[in-house]
Amino acid sequence: MSDRAQKRPFRWHIVVFLAPAVLIYTAIMIIPLFGTLNLSLFARAEDGTRVFVGLQNFRTLFGDDRWSDAFWNATGNNLWFFVIHMLVQNPIGIALAAILSTPKLRFAAFYRTAIFIPAILSFVIVGFVWKLILSPLWGVAPTFMDALGLGDWFAPWLGLERSALTTLALISVWQFVGIPMMLMYAALLSIPDEVLEAAEMDGITGASQFWKIKLPLLLPTIGIISILTFVGNFNAFDLIYVTQGALAGPNFTTDILGSYLFRTFFGFQLQLGDPNMGATVATVMFAIILVGVSIYLFGVQTRLRRYQF
Amino acid sequence: MTSARANMGRSAAAHAILIAYTVLALYPVFLILINSVKGRRAIFNDPLSLPTAETFDPIGFQTVLEQGNFLLYFQNSLIVTVASLFFVLLFGAMAAFALAEYRFRGNLLMALYLALGIMIPIRLGTVAILEIMVAAGLVNTLTSLVLVYTAQGLPLAVFILSEFMRQVSDDLKNAARIDGLSEYRIFFTIALPLVRPAMATVAVFTMIPIWNDLWFPLILAPGEATKTLTLGSQIFLGQYVTDWNAVLAALSLAIFPVVVLYLIFSRQLIRGITKGAVK
């Protein structure tokens, strides 16, 4: 086949089919991505020209207190943001999917559609909706907590340094729980009936069937969900910007890498934007995501046994 | 039969949990919608009750429609989303067809190259993207957004569509070749119509992040004439933060089109996810 292909005249139609996608993708995505990595090696001189400074920007970012404190703060916060998603969003999503896939469950389509709705709303809507609900001014949240007998526990969580980041992470969990749920639900449906029937013959049913038969089969899906969560979280920005502004208040306690990148690159209030330092932050984010994706691709995915039915 | 009773109990528990979670997912949205048509006093005194004839007051919507340029923002969002979607689907399907249909040197490499963008977010290239757009004079134009979103949507579109392009029957295409149809005709008249269901799925996946994006409108097109609905409502909400009627009405207006669109396409979306995961 390949021998024959080489003897044929040059097949221009392949080029025509591929060209638009490859050109746009290369020009708008790949070149800027590497352009950004490249920009991180330069700095702006006094006279406005660009000079090559090697790894100086990274030294500044990691070593200079004015930069590094904020950077490590944002990285730490981002990690906590991710941990909450992994500990709350994904288990809830999996549990909901497991319940949804109960055979002959009525209204399953309705529940599925309804629980997914927050995931299609924009961060602007979600951020503001929760800002209003948690606002002590409006009093919806305190009223609810009073009704549950927890009235004394209410606090303006979004405004407190202690709780703001966790609250935001939980809002994001509320929004996106539908995604792991859908992916798991799809994976659960794809488990063949024969496997489950065989388990039933051996007397494994109900919860123990879930833990012993289904969950091991779902590990590849859990891997995909984890890496999607990771990339999404380390690239998040909108929710923080909408609810807390570019300054990621109170006192930078909700600053994550996305909002830090925005401030560095674009500037805010008294600080001028710096494209080169912005590119440096973006490069570090790129490295973090690359490490995460590599761990997944080479460390996790290859070890998971894939079951073919 | 204890097992039948246990089943009943289990199914009741399942419904209880699912109903509880559905309420948690929908109630915040519902709360915004019902309060958006109430007067200011009712919003604060009795936020949880439905609007009645006494408390009904559309003042919020009036403010939004008078003060904000929402019709323009909506139009901008629509143009950007539809145009990006068109290019993602057309160029994505073309590339997917080439990768799935022809054997040529570098085929796998090209597929991997295009798949790179699924995992690496385009946002990380923002600094250089802005420089390119400034150099090309495209800042504050909808074109810049369409270009960025097309690039952003292509990797996943190519990846999903090439799976489906492979399933198009070879006999059909070979019969067409014997009849003398060109490769372009085969693509447009045979392959494209046959992968239409997959295209619909890709369309939904591509559309939602574009419509909801705040990052690129904020950086590439923050001008009044090019604001998208997401950016426009963000700024409006920031300015009118103390006018609760206006804020609630603006939120309702922003929620409405997405939810309607979702309810129309939800079956397609769910079928798409299910199919993708089975593969």
From TrEMBL, chain A:
It is a multi-pass membrane protein. The chain crosses the membrane at residues 12-34, 79-100, 109-130, 167-188, 217-240, 278-299. GO terms for cellular component: plasma membrane. Pfam families: BPD_transp_1 (PF00528). Keywords: Cell membrane, Membrane, Transmembrane, Transmembrane helix, Transport. Residues 75-298 form the ABC transmembrane type-1 domain. Coiled coil: none annotated. It is found in: Cell membrane. It comes from the Bacteria. InterPro entries: ABC_transporter_permease (IPR051393), MetI-like (IPR000515), MetI-like_sf (IPR035906). PROSITE patterns: ABC_TM1. GO terms for biological process: transmembrane transport. Belongs to the binding-protein-dependent transport system permease family. PANTHER family: ABC TRANSPORTER PERMEASE PROTEIN (PTHR30193), INNER MEMBRANE ABC TRANSPORTER PERMEASE PROTEIN YCJO (PTHR30193:SF37). This is Lactose transport system permease protein LacF. It comes from Roseinatronobacter ekhonensis. The gene is lacF_3.
TrEMBL record, chain B:
One of its GO terms (biological process) is transmembrane transport. PROSITE patterns: ABC_TM1 (PS50928). Keywords: Cell membrane, Membrane, Transmembrane, Transmembrane helix, Transport. The chain crosses the membrane at residues 12-34, 78-100, 112-139, 145-165, 186-211, 246-265. Gene3D superfamilies: MetI-like. It is found in: Cell membrane. Residues 74-265 form the ABC transmembrane type-1 domain. It is a multi-pass membrane protein. InterPro entries: MetI-like, MetI-like_sf. GO terms for cellular component: plasma membrane. Belongs to the binding-protein-dependent transport system permease family. This is L-arabinose transport system permease protein AraQ. The gene is araQ_3.
